[in-house]
Amino acid sequence: MKVNCLTALLLVVFSLNVFGKEEKKYLVSDIPEILKEDANSVIRVDEKLYTVVDNEQLNLTRKFAITILNSRAEDLASFGIYYDKFMKIGKLNARIYDAEGNLVDKVKSSDIMDLNIAAGQSAAIDDSRIKTYTARHNSFPFTFEFEYEIEIKATLFYPDWQPVKNYYQSVVFDMLSIQVPPGIDFSYKESNLTTPVVMEEVDGAKKYTWKLNDFQALEPEPYSPDISEFTPFVYTRAKDFVMDDYPGTLDSWATLGQWVETLNRGRDELSPETIAKLNELVAGCTTTEEKVAKIYSYLQSNTRYVSIQLGIGGWQAIPANEVDEKGYGDCKALSNYMKAMLQAVGVDSKYVLISAGSSARSLDEEFPKSQFNHAIVMVPNENDTIWLECTSQRNPLGYQGRFTGARKALVVDGEKTRLVETTHYSAEQNVVKNVGEFKLLADGSATVSTQSSFGGLDYDDIRSMYFEGAEEQEKFLYDWIDLNGVKIDNYSLKREEGRIPQSELQLNMQVRNYGTSMNDRMFVPVNGFNRWTNVPKRIRDRKTDIVKRYSFTEEDEYTYVLPEGFEIESIPENINIENQFGTFNTATKVEDGKITYSRKLVLFEGTFQKETYPDLIDFYKNISKSDKNSFVLKQGA
Questions:
Q1: CA distance 275 to 325
Q2: Measured distance CA(150)–CA(434) in Å, rounded
Q3: Helix locations, 215-326, DSSP H
Q4: What are the backbone dihedrals phi and psi of residue 619, each rounded to the nearest 5 degrees, phi first?
Q5: Which of 84, 87, 9 is CA-nearest to residue 50?
Q6: DSSP characters for 47-89?
Q7: How far apart are CA 515 and CA 51, in angstroms?
Q8: Pairing of strands 129-134, 103-106
């Protein structure tokens, strides 16, 4: 058979069209316009299928694609896939598409970085690794797609489904499927779903599927709950699990606690020499708190924090005698070591699991599973529980702050394992007090001396100063003082550590142009030192309730010594405001050529209905307006 040149050419062209050109995918024009509103990125697809093999293994297949609309979301075109002895990555590939859906790059294996998690960290020892890649394209929009498979031999960690993770991000399609064979006791807990779970039979297994379609991007709102608390969220678990040949059950919080105890059993031993040293250290102590204080100080002076995640070490503490020898450990190891040392001097304490961080998601009490990322120690002390943060060399005894305070924690205590509430800090404890004297001169400048105290959570705002050199301290103060033309003459710091720590700052300074002169009058701010400036923006249609996580008190009293030759022309009226968000009071007193201005602001914590948001704005605006007030001095004849 003869084939002429034209036929051959057509065959080549046909072959190129069929085999050399991929079908267009992820055209930006296919995204509904409503999903582009307020969005910097759009999740085109996120499909996750978990296939449960047995009580020891589940496998994940995932396909993910995100369209990056502009540079503000560029860093979201990336992946970071963790693996260790419990997780093995199989297939992994990634592609980049332009706005018209054309494939512009297939990511090579050599372009994907494979790093040790601890790389570059002096305070970390970790055998976990991460495969990571960040996509870049020369124009926006573009789409980044990746797919991977992973084998997971750690069934404590069944997945949670949170399809809405970021503000300014829409979702076209997100799906979680979990296929469970007979004999696996599987359960889940749903919240804020738009459509319920779909359950079907597949090859004798039960397949549970959750889907989210066409979710429009959210804008952040001031004082909103965590995004996971008002968007779709699903917890899942299996009753029975295995981690590195350690089986456990999630019947209750108690069984989880018993499993943790099994992991750490026999790891609280100390050498006779160390035990003798510790008992000598507490000799003469007459109370439990005195003993705890001595041992806690010893811990802080002789250990440092190092994140250690080797094998099951993400859950199991390093033996106490190893920490004692090496002088370092992670939160689990240091907490276990502290517990062992307290036991050596006759003080009962408990190992505690907690979700740490100032913005940690609230623990779901009704669904026992791993919801923790940190370990601490609790010392029962009649009605005065002592909480110990064992990773910090600077933390005051018993102080939790925003890191672990005011939340539920799991006290590991065998069959008595239970959830308890950690320290709550009230408005009477979170107090800032400022007392100052301003000696005014005729040109508007002032010599100022102030004394400020910070208690409770407000202690956190200034405590870093105690551990800085003089140069850094001074820089901190110049940034912190809300005045122009300031020259600090001298300052002093003092602190009182304790469950409710206190710090004190004394300042002496010169301020140019504190008062503003206009003809024969001088306008002097009533509060130039601690002004309220936080007035949130108005929102036309607020979506979430208002969450105020902490309560605070501010108390200020400033005395102004009038410059020679000036008299008072006017002073602001007193203010008294009281509502569901707090109270605000001011008073001005004139006596012996001096003006004394006092101010007290109390802000309440709580959850408030979204309809009250305009009232909150008005409250803050009134505070801010008052703090901008001035009294007027007039130069005498």
A1: 13
A2: 57
A3: 253-264, 272-281, 288-302, 320-326
A4: -60, -50
A5: 87
A6: EEEEEEEETTEEEEEEEEEEEE-SGGGGGGSEEEEEEBTTEEE
A7: 72
A8: unpaired
- Pull the structure tokens for residue 250: 């999630």
Joined tokens for residue 419: 């959830």
Task: Return all residues near 602 (Cβ < 8 A) that are at least 6 apart.
Answer: 427, 551, 552, 553, 554, 582, 583, 584
Residue found by looking up tokens 């960290």 in the block: 121
Q: Which of 46, 43, 145, 53 is nearest to 92 (CA)?
A: 145
> At 46, which amino acid appears?
D
Of 281, 249, 266, the C-alpha closest to 346 is 281
Tokens standing for residue 130:
């991460």
* Digit-coded pLDDT (tens) for 120-158: 444 445 567 889 999 999 999 999 999 999 999 999 989
Residue 559: strand pairing partners: 437, 596
Hey, what amino acid is at 346?
G
3-class SS at 428? coil
CB-based contacts of 227, cutoff 8 Å, min separation 6: 164, 165, 166, 167, 218
Amino acid letter, 628: K
Token pair of 362 as six digits? 């609230």
CB-based contacts of 310, cutoff 8 Å, min separation 6: 125, 126, 127
- Cis before residue 525, ω within 30 degrees of 0? no
All domains in the chain, ordered by first residue: 28-243 (2.60.40.3140), 251-421 (3.10.620.30), 439-635 (2.60.120.1130)
User: What is the length of the chain?
Assistant: 637
Q: Tokens 């001595």 — which residue?
A: 294
Identify residue 137 by its one-letter amino acid code: H
Tokens linked to 303: 């250990």
pLDDT more than 90, % of the chain: 83
CA 510/CA 490 separation, integer angstroms: 10
Judge if pTM exceeds 0.85. Answer: yes
What is the per-residue pLDDT across 94-122, written as a single tens digit (0 to 9) for each?
Answer: 999 999 999 999 999 999 999 876 544 44
Nearest to 65 by CA among 151, 175, 150: 175
Question: Helix, strand, or coil here: 403?
Answer: helix
